[in-house]
Amino acid sequence: MPIDPTLPYDDQNIFAKILRGEIPCNTVFEDDLALAFHDINPQAPTHVLVIPKGAYVSWDDFSANASDAEIAGFVRAVGHVARALGLVEPGYRLLANIGMDSHQEVPHLHVHIFGGKPLGPMLMR
Ligand code: 5GP
């Protein structure tokens, strides 16, 4: 079910549990500000999720309320993962689902990194 991104942060969401170590994940990258791990249900040969460690529901929440260091750390983590996975030369796609129309399912901000094959049109027609 898509989530309402205007609701307060729910610390029982699955990514909050991953951040607390209550649920395992296949980590690709981690530092003080961000965590990247393989999606449990990959939609491409490479499908990694990058999340800020802070409690932010959406891009709107993050951009309005995160510190400059948190924002920089998150953006740099995405670039780090793309480089580490060899995606820079072949290319890759970033996707952030925010709210109902986008079918965001997990109410903790995340960017999907897709790669490893030609990714087709930008949106379903
Ligand atoms: P959304 O639709 O919110 O943009 O994407 C949520 C993503 O989280 C989905 O691609 C889904 O497969 C992934 N996901 C949901 N639960 C888990 C989990 O427990 N572990 C991992 N690694 N990914 C998950």
Automatic annotation (TrEMBL):
InterPro entries: Histidine_triad_CS, Histidine_triad_HIT, HIT-like, HIT-like_sf. CDD domains: PKCI_related. Pfam families: HIT. A motif (Histidine triad motif) lies at residues 108-112. The active site is at H110 (tele-amp-histidine intermediate). Residues 14-124 form the HIT domain. It comes from the Bacteria. GO terms for molecular function: hydrolase activity. Keywords: Hydrolase. PANTHER family: HISTIDINE TRIAD HIT PROTEIN. This is Diadenosine tetraphosphate (Ap4A) HIT family hydrolase. The lineage of its organism: Bacteria, Pseudomonadati, Pseudomonadota, Alphaproteobacteria, Sphingomonadales.
